[in-house]
Amino acid sequence: MASQNKIPQATAKRLPLYYRFLNNLHLQGKSRVSSKELSEAVKVDSATIRRDFSYFGALGKKGYGYNVEYLLGFFRKTLDQDETTKVALIGVGNLGTAFLHYNFTKNNNTKIEMAFDLDPNKIGTEAGGVKIYSIDEMEDHLTDVQAAILTVPGAVAQNIAERLVASGITGILNFTPARITVPDNVRVHHIDLSVELQSLIYFMKHYPND
Ligand code: ATP
Description:
Elements: H1 9-27, E1 32-33, H2 35-42, H3 46-55, E2 66-67, H4 68-78, E3 85-90, H5 94-101, E4 110-117, E5 126-127, E6 130-134, H6 138-141, E7 147-150, H7 154-166, E8 171-174, E9 187-190, H8 193-206
Helix pairs in contact: 1-4, 2-3
């Protein structure tokens, strides 16, 4: 992802959104798209879209818009779409089980390859076609895995994160309420669903028109 170093983080975060929409357009046989059309679909204002796209060397032409195939080619390369990133999931509870059943590859080349749990009733079984191994054997299986999804109870999150890092994992999607500490070379994205829901409701009540 060397080329992505030059793209601002805020732009990089919107890439998957653009990618998904453009991929759908492409599947529908459309070869071009205007920034207005894009803007309405992805809910990003067209000035931001134009600025984002200028980082990719995609300069829309007036009255023509953007070339869908060119943009898709760029996004595929930038988002490493041609190379599957292997992901492990730790903690096959309610949320973890839902993720194992969710078809991530619909939109990108990310695949949960394996899952780990403590519960002897879950170990050795499968969920959504993904094998569940014992947490005690985690290190033996993580040889070719780059990222992990953490859906364990918060109390064990830090310890498991440390084991993941020691196994060479460089990205963690943390769904536990615990804030985890990792070395600088490891990226953690924290998604606390109850905080997100609370925050949505707060904004609905206090900023209904913004
Ligand atoms: P469930 O209803 O299946 O218990 P849950 O999401 O409500 O799901 P949690 O207590 O949040 O349950 O635990 C999530 C999952 O993490 C469970 O499957 C549990 O067995 C597993 N788990 C708990 N501790 C560990 C651990 N140290 N290592 C690996 N997995 C663990």
